[in-house]
Amino acid sequence: MRGFHPSLVAFDSLPLAERLFVRARLFSAPLEAMAARARGTRLLDVGCGHGVLAALLAIGFPERSVVGIDPDARKIDWARRSVGRFPNVRLEATTVDALAQLEAASFDSVFVADVLYLLPPAQWPTFLSACRALLAPRGRLVLKEAEDDGSWRAKKTLWQEQLMVRVLGRTHESGAVGFEPRETLIRALEETGFSIRESAPMTRGYTTPHVIFVAECA
Ligand SMILES: C[S@@+](CC[C@H](N)C(=O)[O-])C[C@H]1O[C@@H](n2cnc3c(N)ncnc32)[C@H](O)[C@@H]1O
Questions:
Q1: Residue 1: pLDDT over 90
Q2: For residue 80, what is the domain's CATH number?
Q3: Is residue 201 part of a domain?
Q4: Among protein residues, the one whose CA lies closest to atom 19 of ligand 1
Q5: Is 48 a pocket residue for ligand 1 (Cβ < 6 Å)?
């Protein structure tokens, strides 16, 4: 059943509100579909939040090493207290730029789930270039965003995320809360030197217009 996964056991020690949050996160976003697109054993989750995707990637896969980073120290604290207890997981409160300075070309797959909408599009090239710098040769980027397709889903998602960022203060933003059309996402990836291997819209059964991209260095 969606929203339930064995790896969520990692979050059992968190307070109820956080446990409900991670369950809702797994229910409302195709994180399992992202995890299924992992390649290689050195995996990085940029903007990992509580670490739900990191848990899907790491738990039950001892041969993998999973790094999760997020600029929000509160989120990293929740992640460390849960998925961070697994020996193949490392969590850092840092930025993708800072990590790229230290660990360039170190990852087989880099994941970015619902982060770009928190940055002004003018900052996407810098962010995506840092993701690219972190990838080893033949590495892949697995990116998920909500797209602005003009639908009721897009309007609902914008309203919901403004609530999360501006009213409830649960999500740390980096200068924006907004969604862009799929073409803008594709252009940003291509202009950063990525070649898109897969573009998978996922709206069926969701109230958010999700789209997953798998991209490789061109
Ligand atoms: C909607 S949450 C998604 C969390 C996680 N990726 C997931 O799918 O559950 C957005 C996350 O992006 C993080 N974030 C905000 N600005 C960021 C930035 N400039 N770089 C990386 N992460 C950022 C936030 O702190 C937050 O944890």
A1: no
A2: 3.40.50.150
A3: yes
A4: 174
A5: yes
